[in-house]
């Protein structure tokens, strides 16, 4: 086995750290399936709106999701291709 000693995996490690929280992983998994707004997310997860908003803000700041404004609502979707691949792999089990 050969190890890639020239590649810096810090970006990938940061993504894994962010996705390491169960709530964020649930949010990202759901958003890989469909784009939705914060109200739909907190209703589906049964969590307070403030909690979901904090997790969404972190995911957005890390470039994993983006929000698109539609009138007064913001619809979130996953934009990071590596995250989509990770969710697909995790969903196989």
UniProtKB/TrEMBL annotation:
GO terms for molecular function: DNA binding; DNA-binding transcription factor activity. Signal peptide: none annotated. Residues 4-93 form the HTH arsR-type domain. Keywords: DNA-binding, Transcription, Transcription regulation. CDD domains: HTH_ARSR. PROSITE patterns: HTH_ARSR_2. SMART domains: HTH_ARSR. The keyword Transcription regulation applies. PANTHER family: ARSENICAL RESISTANCE OPERON REPRESSOR ARSR-RELATED. This is Winged helix-turn-helix transcriptional regulator. It comes from Geomesophilobacter sediminis.
